[in-house]
Amino acid sequence: MTDNLYHDVVIIGSGLAGLRAAISCAETNKKLSIGVISKVQVMRSHSVSAEGGTAAVLFEDEGDNKDSHIYDTIRGSDFLADQDVAELLVRQMPDEIYKLDDWGMPWSRKTDGRIDQRHFGGYSFPRATYAQDKVGFYEMQTLYDTCLKFDNIHFYNEWFCTSILDDGNNNFAGLTVIEMKSGDFLIVKALAGIICTGGAGRMYSFSTYAYSSTPDGLDMAYRAGLALKDMEFVQFHPTGIIPSGILITEGARGEGGYLINNQGERFMKRYAPKNMELAPRDVVSRSMMMEMQEGRGFVHETGVECLKLDLTHISEDRIKERLAGIREIGIKFSGVDIVNEPIEIRPVCHYMMGGIHTDIDGRTEMDGLWAAGEAACNSTHGANRLGANSTSECLVWGKITGMLAAGYAHTHLNSTIDIPNDKILLEEKRIYDGIFRGTGNVNPYEVKKELTDMMDKNAYVFRNEDGLTDGLKKARELSKLAWNHVDDKAKEYNTNFVNVMELDSILRVSEIILMGALNRKESRGAHSRTDYPNRDDINFLKHTLAYYNKAEPRLAWHPVKFTQYAPVERKY
Amino acid sequence: MRELDNMTVKSDKKAGCDPRDDSFDLKKTTLRVFRTNTAQGKDSHFDSLVVPVQRWTTVLDSLLYAKSYLDSSIGIRYSCRMASCGSCGMKINGIPRLACYTKISELEDPVVVCEPLPNFPVIRDLVTDFTQFFNHHKSINPYIQNLNYDKTEKIDEVSSSHSHRQSREEVDKYLQFSYCIKCGLCYSACPTVATDTKFPGPQALAQLYRYYADSRDAGKNRLNIVDDRHGLWRCHFAGSCSKVCPKGVDPALGIQLLRSYMLGISKDKRNV
Fold first, then answer.
1. CA of B125 to nearest chain A CA: how many angstroms apart?
2. How far apart are CA B59 and CA B32, in angstroms?
3. How far apart (Å, rounded) are the C-alpha atoms in residues A210 and A198?
4. Residue B27: what pLDDT?
5. Is residue A229 part of a domain?
6. Looking at residues B170-185, what average pLDDT do you find?
C-alpha cells in the first residue's frame, strides 16, 4: 500500500501562480500547512523565462486609466474575454506590482526613482512594468525567496503528480504523486487544492516553452472530469529565433524595434498602420505569415522561411540597459548581435489562452479545487492574450485562489478525507501496468516528435478544415501505436518514465485542440481559419468546453460574460 | 479570400531543430557520459555515445538526442534550455557549466565529457541532490525584512501611497547579485565548500549581500548569521565562483563587500 502525506492546502506547480498562491494562502492563515508540489525543483518553472513585462495601471495622473486597460484587454481578446474577469484583473493589478516591490523585486526605475513602464502590443498606454528583460525571472526569485519567510509553506521538489483524487462526491481529496528521487508512488491528501501547472506549449515542436511545459496538469484535470475551455486558442508569438524557438521579447518592439521583410520594408504598415509592430500578437503573426506567403520572407540557413527583427537603430547603451537578456540570447543561440544586425525570427507557439474551466474566482467544477495562471482558463484573455497580461494574471489569481483555498480549508479543518481505494488502484494500474510495464517497440520520443511536428504544420497560425482533419487523424493514429513502454527500468529519478507519461498527456490534449479548432468555423483572435476568414458573432461568440469521454472528447458551449463593451471590428 | 496556409517552409525541413536531418552540414561528436545509480549502489562508469552536431547544437541538445534515440535511461535534469531556470548544471570537460549554454562547437574538442557537479551528492548519472545547497540559501534569510517601512521616507506621494523609490544607483548596488539563477555552478567550483559543508558557499553569501545592499531592506542581524568560523571568514578568495557563473554574478565581490561592512571599513546603514 502506498504512503500518505497530508496538507491542508496543496498547490500543484511552482511557477508564478503557484508561488503567489502559496504566499497568499500563508498570509491568509498562518496555521494552515501548505504543500507546493512541483515536477521541477521549485522555482525552476517556466515562468522564469517570461521576459518583457507585467501589465498594470500605475500612473493615472499621467494619463493612464483602468478602463483603458480593461478595454484594451477585451478588444485584444477579440471579444471572447469574460468582461467582468478582465475588469478584475485590471483593478487588482496595481497592488501586485507594489507588493512585489515590497518583497524586493528589482523593477527598472525612472530617473526619479519611481517604477518604470514600457510600451507593449495592443495597449493604449505604456503599462508593461518591467525589470530589464527578465521580468518573469525576477518575479520568480522574489516570490520564491519570500516563500522562505513562511514556516508553513513546504516545498516538494521533483514530485510528478499523476492524478487528482476526489472523495466520490466531487469534493477534492488529494493527488497521486511519484517522488522522482526515490521513485515512490504516494498519495497526498488535502482539504483544498490549486492547480498551477502552467501552459503546455511542448505540444508543438517550434515553441518558446521549456521542455517541462507539457499538458500533464491539464490532462489530470480533464481525466478527473473537469472541462478544458477554449483550447483551440493557441498564441503564436511573432518573434521566436530559429531553430531553438527561444523567445525574443515583445519588449524589443516596445523599445522601438522594427519587423522587416526581404525588401527592407516595415511591412506592418500594410496590416496595422496605426500600431505597426505593436499591434496584438495574433495580428502581427498573421501579417508575418502573409508576407512570407507573398514571397517577401528570408530563408534561414535551416531552410525555414522567416522575417527579421531590426534593432540596429537603437543605441547600444539602451539595449544594454533594457534588453541585455535578449542580446545575450541572440549572440549565444542565433550567432547574431542585435546591436549590429537584424535577427531572423518566425511566429512561434507561446501561450495557451485555453485551460481548465474556472469561474471568475478561479473555482473549478470540483469543490475545494481551484486553478490559476496559464493552466486555468478563467477567460481573462479570450481568443488572444495581450503581452504582459499573463504574468499579471498569474499574480492576481494566485492571490485570489490562495485566499479562497485557505478559507475553504479552514472551514473544513475537522472533516475527514475519504478517498475510495479503487480510484487509487485504478491510477496505479494506469501508470504502472499501462505505461511503466507496457510493452511495445515504437520509440515514444519519435511519436512525440511526429505529433509535435504535425501540430506545427496543421494547427499553426492559419488553419483549415483539411489540415485539421488530417492532423486529427494523424494524432489518433499515433496514439494507437505501441509507444507506452519505459525502457529505463530503474526506480530512481526515472525521467524516461516521466517523458512517456508526458507524451500520454500530449496525445490526449492535442486531440482537444484539433477538435476545438475544427468545431470553431470562424476566425477569432489567434484562431484563424482560412476557410472561414471572418469572425462570426452570431454562431461562435461563445466558449468551447471539452469534457472527458472514453471514445473522444465531448464538446459543449459556454456563454461569454458581457458587462458594457459591445463587439466591434478590431483595427490597429 | 485567397487561400493561405502555413506551408511557407520551402523544403520539408521543419522550424524545430532536428539533428537527424542529415541534409545539413553534419558532424559527429562523442559524448562520454558519467553513469551511476547511487541508491542501487552500482559502480560508476562512463558511456560513450556518438551524436550528430550542428553549428548551434548545445551539450543539452546532444544529451537529449542521446536520450531520445540511443539510451533513454540517461539521468539528466533540464527544463528551460535558455539559461534561465538553472537546472542543467554539470561538469563539462572538467569545468562546471550549464549544458544548455555550452555549444559543442565552442568546446573545440572531439570528445565531450559530461559529469555530475562536484560538491553535490549524486542521485543518478548527471543528476545531483541540491538539498544542502538550498538549505544554505534559506539559512541567510533571503528576503526583504521589516516591511514596517518608515513611511515618511522614500514613499512615492505622487501616484501611489505604497511604492518605494529607488534611485538607479541604489538599484545598481544589488542588481548584479540578483541575476543568480541558483544553478549551483559557483558552489560546485568552490574549494572551500569541498572541505567544509557548513560553509554557506558563494551563492548564499552573494544573496546575503544582495538583500543587505537593498535600500528597501531593514533586516538588523543579517551579518551575524555568517559571522563564525564556518561562515564569511572561511572563504579564501580562490575566485573560482565568479569565473564559472553563467550569468555574470560576482559572488567573490559580494563576499569582499560583506567583509568590508563587517570590519567597519564600509559604513553600515544599519550600524550593526
1. 10
2. 11
3. 11
4. 87
5. no
6. 96
Number of CB atoms found within 10 A of residue A1's CB: 7
| A32 closest CA partner among A148, A153, A188 | A153
In tens, the pLDDT along B93-130 reads 999 999 999 999 999 888 999 999 999 999 999 999 99
Residue A171 belongs to some domain of the structure: no
**pTM for the whole thing?**
0.94
- Does the residue A399 lie in any domain? no
For residues A444 and A527, state if they share a domain.
Answer: yes
Residue A523 falls inside a structural domain: yes
Return d(Cα A242, Cα A481) in angstroms, integer.
31
pLDDT in tens, B51-73: 999 989 999 999 999 999 999 99
Q: What CATH number corresponds to the domain at position A460? A: 1.20.58.100
- Over range A43-61, report the average pLDDT: 96
Q: Are A77 and A86 in contact (CB under 8 A)?
A: yes
CA atoms of A426 and A300, how far apart (whole Å): 49
What type of residue sits at position A367? Answer: D
CA pair distance A464, B179, nearest whole angstrom: 44
Average pLDDT score over chain B = 86
pLDDT of residue B160: 44
What is the rounded distance in angstroms from the CA atom of residue A365 to the CA atom of residue A376?
Answer: 12
Helix ranges (H only) for chain B are 59-69, 104-107, 131-139, 168-175, 185-189, 191-195, 201-212, 240-244, 251-262
For A529, the domain range is: 421-534+545-554
By C-alpha distance, the chain B residue nearest A533 is B1
User: Which triple of cell numbers denotes residue A310?
Assistant: 531590426
Domain check: are A436 and A550 in the same one?
yes
Domain boundaries along the sequence of chain B: 27-128, 131-262
Instruction: Pick from B82, B105, B140, B180 the residue to mutate for testing the A interface (most A CBs within 10 Å).
Output: B82
CA-to-CA dists, residue A534 to A82, A84, A292, A452, B6, angstroms: 21, 26, 21, 28, 18
A320 shares contact with chain B (CB less than 8 Å): no
A49, A299, A530 ranked by CB distance to B5: nearest:
A530
The model's confidence at residue B83, banded by pLDDT at 50, 70 and 90, is: very high
- What distance in Å separates the CA atoms of residue A527 and residue A513, rounded to the nearest whole number? 11
Residue type (1 letter), B165:
R
> Selecting from 3.40.30.10, 1.10.1060.10, 1.10.8.100, 3.90.1310.10, what CATH number does the domain B131-262 have?
1.10.1060.10
The ipTM is 0.96
Residue range B27-128, CATH number:
3.10.20.30
Among A285, A314, A349, where does a domain finish? A349
- Whether B159 sits inside 8 A of A60 (CB atoms) is yes
Residue A196 touches chain B, beta carbons under 8 Å: no
Model pLDDT for residues A177-200, shown as the tens digit of each residue: 999 999 999 999 999 999 999 999
Q: Annotated catalytic, A109?
A: no
Distance CA A154, CA B241 (A): 29
Q: What is the H or E stretch that residue A236 is in? A: strand A234-241
The predicted model gives A351-358 an average pLDDT of 98
Is A253 an annotated catalytic residue? yes
pLDDT one-digit tens code per residue, A62-77? 999 999 999 999 999 9
The structural domain count of chain A equals 2
Same domain, A437 and A549: yes
- B181 CA to chain A: closest CA distance, Å? 8
Q: Are A351 and A198 in contact (CB under 8 A)?
A: no
Measured CA to CA, the distance from residue B212 to residue B223 in angstroms comes to 8
Give residue-wise pLDDT tens across range A213-256: 999 999 999 999 999 999 999 999 999 999 999 999 999 999 99
Q: Does the beta-carbon distance from B13 to A329 stay under 8 Å? A: no
Per-residue HEC secondary structure of B123-160 comes to EECCEECCHHHHHHHHHCCCCCCCCCCCCCCCECCCCC
Give the CATH number, domain containing residue A272. 3.90.700.10
